């Protein structure tokens, strides 16, 4: 196995990993802070991808720009969804939330199937097949853009949670819901805000993914599973952790597909998950056990 | 409820306990009243296809053929009534819906695009003595297990690969090309793994003029195939042999373009993926020059042009040229049923089945000889041809007697295509 | 009558006993009234009631959320099918090693999880991870057929029988009904046992349970073993019913999800929950297929599944603890053991 081959595989693993991280950011907020087991995560992302596709199809709007309006739209959807439906489930058991979200997921997948048909849709960007040569390495342009996008989204979220009063209140609420209510925080509003924020992330990430992956209805379950893996490995509620976990899993998969059949590469991501659960259940960047 | 009434009503409390079960079951009965089994003037055939769920793209493509089949077969003077049922890409649903179809009077079943559902339906048909005509499903086991009420008008995985490899040799021969090496890249799913097994068994004996450097299996659920292409690129073969589905074929080509890997030929020894509408729509000019060796509609057959017209009428927004394998085999399955019904003059299961097994249909749409079935229920006369994407349209390029144009080899580079 | 069964029935009041025996009697007489389509649905109902009960033991009684139960049914099916296809060992005998291997998998998962105190969603993810790893392993293991699938050959009707699990719908109707009743009785007996009380204590107050001297690790491990054993036996029956196995189907997350929907919708932790859940959800999917076909024709694939998802949301939103608790109150069957 040559050094160049290993190096280019690692570079690809890092870029793919950052896309994995991007996929997981929204779940990191919703599951990590509101503690809603959002098993419709992938379905929401696919919905965002379809909207980005439509905006490109109708208005020639670049998916990386479409991320902004879609994030705004998804914030509204998330806020309303939380207030109208999910809030009554926050205090209910995880398995009830789970069934609610599975029902929602089935509705979203089949809604997409009915509207868009089963074939994948493609936003034909002028730069979608660009790549750069860096010595013997080849680097894909869109994956680099998506990686930058995921860093930007993560930094914005981080700034919001650290620097604004609302963000601090949300973190307090996540740490101790009862205490937050006692000191007079409006937890219902905060949860709705956070769910909206999480869904806005899913929307932005989904839009940006459209540059790399063609949306189709059966894409979602795999994305949901991957996002949960990334969030758990990274640590609940840790955005940096999610990005780091994405990279770790991306590189592990890439390297494992060099040494064994690539069809077995997702074995690597589940092996990482099991190791982290057993050795450091709070996740790599999670707050102590 | 009327039939279950006396029994469920044995005790008052009992009845109330069963309220829910009783209601749901009686609703199911209401939704599915058993049809009268009188000797019909026309044959009622159920089309069982995965039109939602994971296999929806292929299932809907087959369904378009079923829609065309109803119109064309009626035009051809066959008395056939097709009922359409969605199996939801789910083996359990395929089985229960097969039972329902027969309850509602279906006298033959056609479907279901995949091997798992095919076996589930086969058992129902075997027990109820109703003919089952497999339109598409490649697992060799289907016709190896002694099912009396099943026939398959499609090649097995082994036949696809054997014919596919022969055609690769013919292509190189016809173009006077001497390629040295190949890599076999396949999706690790039901179909891809069966093809891999056939490849492992057949390639060493096929005496091809090039070496097989490696066989690489990839996960069709993977988000991208960049690492697979990197591995491929480091081996730098002349020919890339692929077994794909539409979604991952697109990922594969994109990553090849990004990594500037240009093999001399990309050839499928018998698989979907390279001719689906999704492939053409998403890749545009990059979809051109791919070759696949599969059974295809015979462009020189009169019935093919009739089917093409019926297809266009039933599905105005779809191209027959890309749907024709799925639609063609689905149409032929109904043709087999209708033809047998005409000869047998009865829809009685065993008699109809005997007529189906005795089929000898010379005029049909897919490439190869007449439609007949061997003792196992397999049609041995289906022929593969080489089809190449030229200007976003699948075009038969070999064998010469039915080809509409000559193959383009080696494949032009990715850049500068139009 | 078996003493345990006798004791269990003794806990019911007259009304409940009548209802329970009436239900069992109705189901036993079912084939006399049901056509083949309805029987094929009931076969699935019984199967989901059985695996739902098995999952209920682990989650409903002991509070351990497994989202990877397809691992046990898949292993059960694969082991029995491989032993039959390769060595001609009949499924009734092969069920022993099948259950043994499935239980061993359960022990490994339980050992990892419970020793390190992994619970809740973390435990759920761990179980998904193992099921997915099994899927990938079987997908790539040529000896088990790989992704191309494992096929159980047809046995001619003349030689078909119960011993080889190769009969018709009537055989599988009673087989699956027997399985559902067995798992129900097992669950009832376990719940009434000392172990069952330990499980409930662990579910409600793990710290208090520890203080009471309950060996939590051992009790949880017992739950996973019992659950894996029943689920894998169900997997054996299922494999011989469908007569083919594909890793992408047998070990798919969606299979685990369908398994657990029944008990949650029916009423988690109740004995009747998994039964009621299976009786609602399996026919619901079938009814919606036929109904949407009538209402919107065949032009809109996905409509029936969409309606299914929406109804699932409605049911779970309006029934906080599942359907059975409310339903049993309305039917006057609420108190004590059948709760």
Automatic annotation (TrEMBL), chain A:
Protein name in the entry: Branched-chain amino acid ABC transporter
Q: Example GO biological process term?
A: amino acid transport
Annotated organism of origin? Candidatus Raskinella chloraquaticus
Q: Which GO terms describe its cellular component?
A: plasma membrane
Q: Signal peptide span per the entry?
A: none
Principal localization? Answer: membrane
- Transport keyword on record: yes
Molecular function, one GO term: transmembrane transporter activity
- Membrane topology, as annotated: Multi-pass membrane protein
Family (UniProt): Belongs to the binding-protein-dependent transport system permease family. LivHM subfamily.
Instruction: Write out the entry's keywords from A to Z.
Output: Amino-acid transport, Cell membrane, Membrane, Transmembrane, Transmembrane helix, Transport
* Compartments, as annotated in UniProt: Cell membrane
Give the transmembrane region(s).
Answer: 6-34, 41-59, 65-86, 98-117, 137-161, 190-213, 225-255, 267-285
Cross-referenced InterPro entries: ABC_transp_permease, BCAA_transport_permease
UniProtKB/TrEMBL annotation, chain B:
Entry keyword set: Amino-acid transport, Signal, Transport
Q: Where are the transmembrane segments?
A: none
**Which GO BP terms, alphabetically?**
amino acid transport
Top-level taxon of the source organism: Bacteria
Every Leucine-binding protein domain range: 43-380
PROSITE patterns per UniProt: TAT
- Tell me its family: Belongs to the leucine-binding protein family.
What is the protein's given name? Branched-chain amino acid ABC transporter
Question: What's the source species for this entry?
Answer: Candidatus Raskinella chloraquaticus
TrEMBL record, chain C:
Q: Which Pfam families match?
A: BPD_transp_2
The record's subcellular locations are:
Cell membrane
Q: Which InterPro entries match?
A: ABC_transp_permease, LivM-like
> Per UniProt, which keywords does this protein have?
Cell membrane, Membrane, Transmembrane, Transmembrane helix
Spell out the GO cellular component terms annotated for this protein, sorted alphabetically and separated by semicolons.
plasma membrane
**What topology does the record note for this protein and the membrane?**
Multi-pass membrane protein
Q: Which domain of life is it from?
A: Bacteria
Task: Provide a Gene Ontology MF annotation, just one.
Answer: branched-chain amino acid transmembrane transporter activity
Transmembrane intervals = 18-34, 40-58, 70-89, 95-114, 121-138, 172-190, 221-241, 262-285, 305-327
- Main localisation, per the record? membrane
Q: Which CDD domains match?
A: TM_PBP1_LivM_like
User: Can you say what this protein is called?
Assistant: Branched-chain amino acid ABC transporter
Species per Swiss-Prot/TrEMBL record: Candidatus Raskinella chloraquaticus
């Amino acid at each position: 196995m040559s050094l160049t081959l290993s190096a280019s595989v690692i570079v690809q693993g890092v870029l793919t990993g950052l896309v994995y991280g991007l996929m997981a950011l929204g779940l990191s907020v919703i599951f990590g802070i509101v503690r809603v087991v959002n098993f419709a995560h992938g379905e929401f992302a696919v919905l965002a991808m379809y909207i980005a596709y439509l905006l490109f199809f109708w208005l020639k709007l670049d998916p990386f720009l479409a991320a902004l309006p879609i994030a705004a739209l998804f914030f509204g959807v998330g806020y309303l969804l939380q207030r109208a439906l999910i809030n009554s489930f926050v205090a209910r058991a995880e398995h009830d939330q789970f069934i609610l979200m599975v029902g929602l997921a089935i509705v979203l997948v089949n809604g997409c199937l009915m509207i868009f048909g089963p074939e994948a849709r493609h936003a034909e960007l002028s730069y979608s097949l660009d790549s750069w040569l860096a010595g013997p390495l080849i680097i894909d342009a869109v994956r680099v853009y998506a990686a930058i996008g995921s860093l930007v989204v993560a930094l914005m979220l981080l700034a919001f949670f650290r620097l604004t009063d609302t963000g601090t209140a949300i973190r307090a609420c996540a740490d101790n819901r009862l205490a937050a209510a006692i000191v007079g925080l409006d937890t219902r509003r905060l949860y709705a805000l956070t769910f909206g924020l999480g869904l806005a992330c899913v929307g932005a990430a989904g839009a940006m993914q459209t540059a790399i992956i063609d949306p189709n209805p059966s894409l979602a379950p795999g994305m949901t599973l991957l996002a949960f893996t990334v969030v758990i490995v990274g640590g609940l509620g840790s955005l940096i952790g999610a990005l780091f976990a994405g990279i770790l899993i991306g590189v592990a998969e890439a390297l494992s597909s060099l040494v064994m059949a690539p069809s077995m590469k997702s074995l690597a991501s589940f092996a990482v998950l099991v190791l982290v659960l057993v050795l450091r259940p709070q996740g790599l960047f999670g707050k102590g056990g | 409820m009327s039939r279950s009434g006396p029994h469920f009503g044995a005790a008052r409390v009992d009845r109330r306990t069963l309220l829910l079960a009783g209601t749901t079951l009686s609703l199911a009965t209401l939704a599915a009243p058993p049809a009268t089994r009188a000797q019909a003037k026309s044959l009622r055939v159920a089309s069982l296809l995965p039109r939602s769920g994971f296999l929806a793209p292929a299932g809907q493509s087959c369904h378009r053929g079923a829609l065309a089949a109803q119109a064309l077969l009626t035009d051809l003077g066959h008395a056939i009534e097709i009922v359409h049922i969605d199996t939801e890409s789910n083996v359990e649903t395929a089985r229960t819906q097969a039972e329902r179809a027969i309850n509602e009077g279906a006298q033959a079943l056609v479907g279901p695009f995949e091997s798992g559902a095919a076996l589930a339906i086969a058992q129902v048909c075997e027990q109820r003595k109703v003919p089952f005509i497999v339109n598409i499903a490649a697992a060799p086991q289907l016709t190896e297990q002694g099912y009396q009420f099943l026939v398959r008008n499609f090649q097995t995985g082994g036949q696809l690969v054997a014919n596919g490899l022969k055609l690769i040799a013919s292509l190189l021969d016809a173009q006077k090309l001497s390629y040295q090496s190949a890599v076999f890249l396949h999706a690790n799913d039901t179909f891809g793994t069966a093809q891999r097994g056939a490849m492992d068994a057949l390639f060493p004996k096929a005496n091809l003029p090039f070496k097989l450097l490696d066989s690489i299996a990839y996960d069709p659920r993977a988000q991208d195939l960049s690492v697979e292409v990197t591995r491929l690129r480091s081996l730098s073969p002349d020919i890339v042999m692929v077994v794909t589905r539409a979604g991952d074929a697109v990922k594969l080509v994109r990553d090849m373009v990004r990594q500037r890997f240009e093999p001399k030929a990309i050839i499928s020894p018998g698989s979907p993926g390279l001719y689906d509408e999704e492939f053409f729509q998403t890749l545009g000019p990059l979809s051109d020059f791919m070759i696949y060796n599969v059974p295809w509609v015979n462009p020189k057959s009169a019935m093919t042009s009739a089917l093409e017209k019926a297809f266009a009428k039933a599905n105005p927004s779809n191209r027959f040229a890309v749907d024709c394998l799925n639609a063609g085999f689905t149409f032929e399955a109904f043709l087999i049923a209708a033809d047998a019904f005409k000869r047998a003059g009865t829809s009685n299961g065993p008699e109809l089945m005997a007529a189906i097994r005795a089929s000898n249909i010379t005029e049909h749409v897919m490439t190869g000889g007449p439609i007949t079935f061997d003792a196992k229920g397999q049609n041995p006369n289906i022929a593969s041809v080489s089809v190449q994407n030229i200007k976003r349209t699948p075009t038969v390029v070999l064998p010469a007697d039915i080809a509409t144009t000559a193959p383009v080899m080696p494949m032009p580079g990715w850049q500068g295509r139009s | 009558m078996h003493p345990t069964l006798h004791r269990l029935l003794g806990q019911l009041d007259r009304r409940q006993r009548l209802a329970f025996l009436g239900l069992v009697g109705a189901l036993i007489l079912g084939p006399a009234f049901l056509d083949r389509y309805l029987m094929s649905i009931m076969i699935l109902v019984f199967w989901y009631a059985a695996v739902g009960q098995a999952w209920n033991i682990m989650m409903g009684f002991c509070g351990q959320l497994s989202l990877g139960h397809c691992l046990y049914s898949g292993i059960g099916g694969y082991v029995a099918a491989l032993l039959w296809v390769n060595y001609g060992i009949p499924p009734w005998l092969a069920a022993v090693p099948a259950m043994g291997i499935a239980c061993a998998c359960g022990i490994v998962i339980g050992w990892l999880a419970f020793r390190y105190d992994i619970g809740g969603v973390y435990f759920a993810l761990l179980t998904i991870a193992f099921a997915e790893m099994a899927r990938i392993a079987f997908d790539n293991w040529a000896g088990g057929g790989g992704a191309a699938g494992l096929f159980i050959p047809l046995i001619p009707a003349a030689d078909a029988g119960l011993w080889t699990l190769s009969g018709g719908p009537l055989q599988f109707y009673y087989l699956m009904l027997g399985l559902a009743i067995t798992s129900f009785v097992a669950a009832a007996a376990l719940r009434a046992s000392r172990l069952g009380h330990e499980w409930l204590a662990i579910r409600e107050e793990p710290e208090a349970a520890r203080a009471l001297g309950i060996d939590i690790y051992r009790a949880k491990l017992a739950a996973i073993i019992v659950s894996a054993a029943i689920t894998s036996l169900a997997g054996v029956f299922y494999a011989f019913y469908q007569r083919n196995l594909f890793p992408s189907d047998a070990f798919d997350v969606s299979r685990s999800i369908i398994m657990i929907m029944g008990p949650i919708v029916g009423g988690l932790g109740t004995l009747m929950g998994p039964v009621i859940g299976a009786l609602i959800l399996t026919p619901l999917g079938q009814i919606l297929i036929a109904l949407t076909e009538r209402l919107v024709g065949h032009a809109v694939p996905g409509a029936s599944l969409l309606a299914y998802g929406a109804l699932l949301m409605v049911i779970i939103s309006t029934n906080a603890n599942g359907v059975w608790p409310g339903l049993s109150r309305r039917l006057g069957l609420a108190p004590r053991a059948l709760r």
